[in-house]
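Checklist before submission:
- one chain only
- standard amino acids only
- sequence pasted in full

Submission:
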Amino acid sequence: MSFKPAPFPTAEEGRVSEVEALAVMGTDQKQSYYDYVSLAAELANCRLSVINIIDSSTQWSLCGFGLPDEVFQTIRSAPREMTICQYALLSHKPTIIDDLEKDTLFNEHPMVVNEPHIRFYAGFPLISKRGNVMGTLCLIDYEPQHIEAGLIGVFEKLARRVAHQLELSKEKVNQDVEYLTNILARVVNKFNELTVDELLFCLNFRESESTLQLKADLKQKLLASGVIERSGAEITFSKDWTAVKEEIFESRKNRRVVKIDESYLDNQIQLIENM
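Returned file contents:
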C-alpha cells in the first residue's frame, strides 16, 4: 500500500485564489515569520517548525526553523500530492500524528519510509478571514512526540497570528500597487511621448551619470517631453521629472517593494490607457 494524496477541499477554487493573492510563493519570508517558527519549535520541543502555504499544485515553505539555510533553500517548494500538510487543508482543526510510522494514513509516506525518516507531525491550519485554509504552521520531529492538550490552543493562536499577518501583507501589497499605479498614471499622462523603454531608462538613470552621454535623438526627445531641460550649456533633469522619480523611489523605500520592470510598466500603462 502506497501513500495516497488527500482529496481536494470543498471550495478549492476560492481557496487557491486566496493563496495566490498572497503573492508570497517562492519568496524568503524569514524576516517576517522566524519568531513564530522558532517559538513554536521551542514550546513543542520539536526539532523543526515550518510555515507552508499550498496552492493548486505546490507547497511553498515561507520560513523554517531547525534546518540550515542552504538545506531549507532546497525544500522551499514541493509537489502538493507528496506533502503531509495537504491533509491539514481539509479541516480547521489541527492535524496531529504522534507517530507517523504507526499511522495507517502516513506510514507509507516517502519522508517516513525514507530520509529524513520523520516520525512526528503537527499541522495547525492558517485560516483566512473567508474561512479557507491557506497552509499550515507545522511541527516536525525525527522521534515520536506528544503535544500536551494545554499547548494546542497556544499553537492555534500562533497559526491565527501568522494567517492574519499574511493577509495584512497582501493588503499592503495591493495598496502599494495602487499607489504606484497612480504615480505611473501621472507619468504616462505628463510624459506621454516616451516609450516604456525610455521611461525605464530615465527611472534608472543615475544622478552621477552625465546627461551629456545621452544620444542626440533621445536627448532631443527628452527635452521636448520635459524630462530634461537646458540651462545655458548645462542639461539637467527637470524639476517635474525629478519630483516624480523621487516619489516613486521614496514609495519603494517606505513600502513593500514592487519590482518596476518593463513587464510591470507595460501592464500598468495598458490599464491606464484602458480607463
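Reviewer check: Confidence is low (pLDDT under 50) at residues 255-262.
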